[in-house]
# Entry
Amino acid sequence: MIQKFANLLFLASIFFLPWQTVMMLSAVEISGEPSAYGALSIYVVEWMIAFAFLLRGRQQTNSQVHRITRAIYFFLATAFFSLSFSQIDWVGWFQSLHLVSAAMLFSLLIDERTNTRQVLVMFLAGLIVPILLG
# Structure
C-alpha cells in the first residue's frame, strides 16, 4: 500500500515538474532589486519528490549504478562543505536543498521499481498545459 502511494506521489511529481509551482519565502536584494539567485524558495515538486523518496524506502539498483550514486553523494558532500566558506550561508542552504532534491529525483528515476514508460508519459502529459499557455 505504501509502495503504491509512493509510486503515485512520484508520478504526480513528474507530472507537475514542468509547472514549477514555487513558494517564495524571501529574496536577497542587490542594488535595491530582488535577485533571482538569492530567492529563498521551495518548490512544491521538491516536497513531493522528498516524500516519495522517503516512502519508497531503500533504493533497489544494480551494482553498476552504485558508482554513479557514490559520485552524486561525493558531489553533495563537497557542496555542503563549500557552505562553510560562503559569506551568505542561508542562501547557500536553500540552494543546496535544490541539489538534494535533484539527487532524490535521480535516485527515484534509476530505481529498478520505476517504470520508465510511465514516467515519460506523465512528464509529457504534464507538458501539455504549459505548452498551451505558451
About this structure: Strands lie at 22-30, 33-43. The CA atoms of residues 83 and 89 lie 6 Å apart. The mean pLDDT is 85.
